[in-house]
Amino acid sequence: MNKLIENTVEFVKEKLKGAEAGHDWYHIERVWKLSKKIAETESCNLEVVELAALLHDIADPKFHNGDETVALKVSREFLENQQTSENVIEKVLFIIKNISFKNRAEAPENLPVELKIVQDADRIDAIGAIGVARTFNFGGFKNNPMYDPEIKPKLNMSKDEYKKSNGTTINHFYEKLLLLKDLMNTRKGKEIAAERHSFMLQFLDQFYKEWNVS
């Protein structure tokens, strides 16, 4: 591991101490590992991929009153202190700015491969068994109901509606998680996502059977 990546790991671990469990160091570590796994199958700048994976949730807007600039400021300051080249900094910040699901309509066309890789990795960590666990953890953190048959999922929400949404945890599967498989960019990402998507469908099937005491 090169020194810059090593220092970034230590910085992120320290910065995310006490973070909500779905967006803590372990989430970052999984996205970092997934990014490296996907990067093996793509021609890319691995340093940019690793830095963006490590810094992508350094200040998630959900925990900063929706402010999407905090992560960019924190990341730039850290990378400048590490004497990182401006070219690399700009590429990393571009990824952080454009990675999220809610910003997908605003993302420019012809995304760089490094963004595609980290975005796939981040979305993969939102699905499968880990995705189920993270979703219920965050729902509990927000004190959202697990499920209410009377509350239907809100599909095709705008960015503002998505940010303000306080629906049920089960509805989040339909509003986001089940959509992610078809939004993957890379061949490897699609392959991993397909298996995890299948698990979520099985989980939902079992959930409804138990909820309805079938």
UniProtKB/TrEMBL annotation:
Any Pfam family matching the protein: HD
Domain HD: 24-127
SMART domains: HDc (SM00471)
Record-given protein name: HD domain-containing protein
Organism listed in the record: Chryseobacterium takakiae
